Amino acid sequence: MLGWPERHGPAQAQVMTNTDAHSHDAVDPDRIFQLAQGFMASKHLFAASELGLFEALGQGPVDLAGLAARTGLTARTARISADAMVALGLLERQGDRYANTPVAATFLSGATPADMRPLLKFWDRLSYPVWTDLAGALGRGRPASQVFDIDEELVPIMSAGIEAATAAACRALPAAAGLPPASRVLDIGGGTGSWAMALAQADPDLTGTVFELPGVAAVAEERLRTAGFATRISVVAGDLLTDDLPRGHHAFLLANVVHYFTPETNQAVLRAIRAVAEPGARLLLADFWTDPTHTQPLPAALMAGEFAIHVNDGDVYSVQESAAWLAATGWSYTGTAPLAGPISLVTAKAA
Ligand SMILES: C[S@@+](CC[C@H](N)C(=O)[O-])C[C@H]1O[C@@H](n2cnc3c(N)ncnc32)[C@H](O)[C@@H]1O
Prior knowledge:
By secondary structure, the protein is α/β, with parallel strands linked by helices. It has 16 helices and ten strands. The radius of gyration is 23 Å and the shape is globular.
């Protein structure tokens, strides 16, 4: 008899033979409905966040009329959105009053520093539209356009979204990295500078440089200035594939960058970093590293689609692949440590 992966384990092939034909009645399509409706759940969540439901309920539980008044929605549309969030476990209904669950209150109400709404906005505005062409992109072997070519006004949305997605991993980085005190760090493809700032927050003597493409470099400069780190972390605009990397650093961070490139390009990047590193220099590679099969952890396996739809060579890689690249480019692999969720840290030293 055929069964669902949960019952029989994901490794067991679900192969139907002629002799299984009599068992059709025992098979139901619930799992297909559940997975196929995933886009409805995502879009309901993006809409509830954009329409301010969680923020409105941050003021306290309220009935439907009150929720409609707080959000400016009609009673019917407030109910559709709020009931979907109840069904998905992000709101609770106590009698006729809606309330944020602890998860929504913490990450979606805007009332705490752990705000995940920028990630939802990024996925809704930049990712969701291009995922409609996933089959086309996989079929052609290339997305219709790359994330590098997005409109200028979308760059801050993308940068803020990536910063929100990686915030927990950033917080875990200093302990996992274990850099010597007063290290000078080059954060290559450093985004808004959030990873460099996390290291600088943990060590008041740490200094460094964020190296980024010009559009994002401007976002990083502003972010570092407003956060008060501009005197310790500078920004250099450049292209890591074609420009010389800045010299004079003891440690190098490449966070969520290798998933943009082919294995060959990644080895060229690691070689270029090695060329500006002294022996013993530390290398930190943070990413959605997978197991050797590229199927675990599940969020990383799904993110392979996100990378493939945003950049020509986007993909996920395994820890074992990274170790082989390191060995081939003058680095010694020193270990892997979890950071947060599906993001982990591969560490190496310049040989
Ligand atoms: C997924 S983001 C990661 C940002 C940051 N490291 C983080 O983890 O939050 C990848 C970053 O690499 C930068 N990047 C991509 N190609 C680059 C290149 N050729 N030269 C410099 N930076 C590049 C992008 O601008 C983007 O900010």
